[in-house]
Structure formats: structure tokens, C-alpha cells
Amino acid sequence: MKKILLSFAALALLICACQQNSVRYTQNSPEIDTVKKLIANYDSKNYDTSMYADTSKTYYNSNDNAMSAAQTMDYHRESEVNYASRGFKSDHQEYEMVVTDDGETWVNCWLQWRCTLAANGKEIAVPVHLTLQFVDGKIVKEYGYWDPTEIVLELQKIEAEAKMMEEEQTE
């Protein structure tokens, strides 16, 4: 009888231990909901930093030159001058949350961003990957990766055309 009770106790402990740390990957979590809110805020030009930790660091297309949450919002505000419209497409968004072997919680998302340039009305679409680390429900690190080449080249072309027109007028 004693062996049976000990076996049930060991089994109960094993089940409890497995349940506490069983979620290593999911597509539905409070952290994912936070990232979706961050994306919705960006789309509506609501530059709220409340979901970031005070010491958060954001890196866009770099592993250097970290920005604070406030600097990240300033970065987005300053970019607005280039666009008649911009935002993430609502379809084909993919989100996942993973807990690493070291116990870090990360949310990854793959999105399609698009804009219409203010200067010439050209529409551009860019795939974007974001990965965000969470601690105690707050974003502590954010990495964003995309290829800005088409936008940069188009803005350079617009600037060169404006300069040529200016030079023609001064002749």
C-alpha cells in the first residue's frame, strides 16, 4: 500500500512539474496580444510606450545603435514626412511566442508593410520581421529587420529630380 501511495505521489509531482513549464511555443499568448497592440498603435499613429520596460532597447536593421522606447517613437514620427500613408497589411500576419532553453520569452512576427510615398504617390510593399523579448509582460528588447532599399532609392530619385529642377530654374 505504501508503494502505491508513493507511486501516486511521484506521478502527481511529475504531472505538476510538466504542466508548469510545458509551454515553449505558442501562437496565442498575452505577449503576442501586446505585439498586436503595438502594431495597431503604429498603424493608427498612437506612439504609446507603456508596453516597453523603462530600460528597453530597440534595434532596427542593426545589432548596434540601440534606441529607447521614446527614441523609437521619435524615429517613427520623423519618418512620417515621407509617406502619404503607411502601415501593416492586416492579412498574412504570423505570430509566435517561444521560450528559449535559457527561459527567455520572445515573440516573433512576420508582417507585410506598405506605404504610399508622399512626393510621388508610388506604392511600395516590404516584408518585415520583428522579434521582441519580454520580461514580466514588458518589452525589454526589440529587433526589426527589413530591406529598405526600394524606399531609399525612390527617395534619392525624388531628391535628385527636385535638385535638377531647382538648378534648371536658377539658370
TrEMBL record:
| Signal peptide bounds | 1-21
| InterPro entries recorded | NTF2-like_dom_sf
- Would you say which domain of life the source belongs to? Bacteria
Q: Does Signal show up as a keyword for this record?
A: yes
Q: Does the keyword Signal apply?
A: yes
- Annotated keywords: Signal
**In its UniProt entry, what is this protein called?**
Nuclear transport factor 2 family protein
